Amino acid sequence: MRIDLHTHSTASDGTDSPAELVCGAVAAGLDVVALTDHDTTRGHAEAAAALPEGLTLVTGAELSCRLDGVGLHMLAYLFDSEEPELLRERELVRDDRVPRARAMVGKLQELGVPVEWAQVARIAGDGSVGRPHIAEALVELGVVDSVSDAFTPAWLADGGRAYVEKHELDPFTAIRLVKAAGGVTVFAHPLAVKRGRTVPESVIAELAAHGLDGIEVDHMDHDEAARARLRGLAGELGLLTTGSSDYHGSRKTCRLGEYTTDPEIYGEITRRATGAFPVPGTGGTRP
Length: 287
Prior knowledge:
Blueprint: E1 3-7, H1 18-27, E2 32-35, H2 44-49, E3 56-67, E4 70-77, H3 84-110, H4 117-124, H5 131-140, H6 147-150, H7 171-180, E5 184-187, H8 201-209, E6 214-218, H9 224-237, E7 240-243, H10 263-272, E8 279-280
Parallel strand pairs: 1-2, 2-3, 5-6, 6-7
Antiparallel strand pairs: 3-4, 3-8, 4-5
Helix pairs in contact: 4-5
């Protein structure tokens, strides 16, 4: 089995619709794909309706968290999307996205960048507006060469010149809420140092003690040394280890299925989850 547990669609900051994403997953030779848009489950229904036969959909979300000034992302799988407390927190994050993005556009304008809100809104479309949409606007304007180049201290990285904070969950609270909703939590790309500051291993140990299920090890932003370090840490802490593409369509260079999760780990994730079940494909309607 080939299993990719971290992808994004136009419901947040990807460029493929949920229906296009699941069809692309089949073309990439995947057996299981997780749709984990940022702080939203809005793409799940479309993905499930279009799910081709032979592909299984894992419903999830990537939750925006912050601890001691450091941003981190928590992948949540197979939780009850209608559980009130977790839903309320996701809505708070979502509702803060537009004011935050507008404020970042304002900062960029103060820095002399001729970006306009209308341009960012056009790029975001129906998705939850975020930094990748602003980064794409900078690419269109020729300010940077790629979306990744916009995530530097000069521009949009945490603490960067145009960075603006948004409402984000405390990661310990995120774990508690996801657990209460019957879900499973995996710390996304915990050593992605190119994105900015990361939390120390002691924090990962604290998260594990509070119920964290796993850490994402095989990821495009982890070099071989980081992966080895994380595997050792997971072994010490009794954490599951996953691998994922973090696919965003054409917005990033990673490909669906570029990194995958061991079937035994996937099986353990599904065994632990009680809030929702993986959705088997039945030959859905293609986009």
